[in-house]
Amino acid sequence: MGSAQTRLQSTWSDKQHVDLISEAVSQALIGTGLRIEDVDFVIDSGSDFLDGRSISNCGFLGAMGAHHKEESRVEEDGLWAALYASTKIGSGSARVGLVIAYSKSSESDPRNYWTSLAEPFTQRPVGLDQYSVAGLSAQAYLASAGIGADALTAVSERNYSAAGANAKVDADLALLDSPEWSDIVASPLRRRDLARPVDGAVALVLANADITRQIGAPAAWITGLGTATDQHFIAARSLSSLPAAQVAAQQAYRSSGLSPVDLDLVEVSANSTAGELQVLEALGLADQARAIDLYADGAGEHINQSGGGLPADVVMATGLVRMHEVASQLTGRSERPTGGATRGLAHGTGGLGMQNHCVITLETA
Fold first, then answer.
1. Which of 109, 189, 298, 343 is 20 to 30 A from 364 (CA-CA)?
2. Is 317 within 8 Å of 81 (Cβ atoms)?
3. pLDDT tens-digit profile of 45-101?
4. For the whole prediction, is pTM greater than 0.90?
5. What is the spatial distance between Cα 62 and Cα 57, in angstroms, rounded to a whole number?
6. Is 121 among the domain residues?
7. Residue 316 belongs to what domain range?
8. What is the CATH classification number for the domain harbouring 308?
């Protein structure tokens, strides 16, 4: 029914979590015909680890509008919170839900957060983290695809260029030209190849069919849902592909009746440029090892028109931002409307080394 996000930037030094959350919530309700009193439940996504205290969402309930309401916490990317809310409404147990995701990465160290997800007895002691896993995966993928690491530049440049045209993202295009952003972080990945943590919040208002039709405002209908989780141990996974993302996509396609060629808009999340290529192949948007072709001139223009998650990774919220982008463009609420688009897909990922994947398809009537 409605959605909104704050500006995504490297540091929100003059705003606290509650400020970002309340801004997203109040803006998401505008134009829906609904008030906070009409919301039956609130589901939020965040991380106690990143927030720096246990049960941190209790400090934000007022900003979320969750006072005296049913409230749940999802310790995963916000796209899973949207899936949770969708199934709750679809079951008939509620009519209107509010989904919120947020992060202030500038107040913590996301790298330590990802390391905390590694198995504590063998993987964590050797220093395995999100960057090193991304580097290992990139090596395997590039070798299987038969392309060099320099080809990844096209992915970062496309995303940062699109983010630069997005008023809601502080893309800081100068970063790509700065010498330190060409430094190797996890071979073969350079700093410019890795998702850039930022601060921000996003909120979505979901309602059942009766409420939506009664109000009559433009809405994006959720038609397909899918989620899957890969092996926990990195050595047990296929480093050159993302089978869990493929399973999640197939679930969403099966329930929606859509196929990759039907999609007008696609917004995906990834921890690196090589990871983005693997996601696009898992979603069926490119043949195996050929996703790089989508970054040639005139190709893949419907993918990550917002800039995607690489220039602005709101840890715990990036996937929900992707859903907001698709929904707002389909309904004409975006500052960058896409004329004629009626079908879209949002993808989110979580876990160490993109272990978990969630896919949601949306359509307009």
1. 298
2. no
3. 999 999 988 999 999 999 999 999 999 999 999 999 999 999 999 999 999 999 999
4. yes
5. 10
6. no
7. 2-109+195-363
8. 3.40.47.10
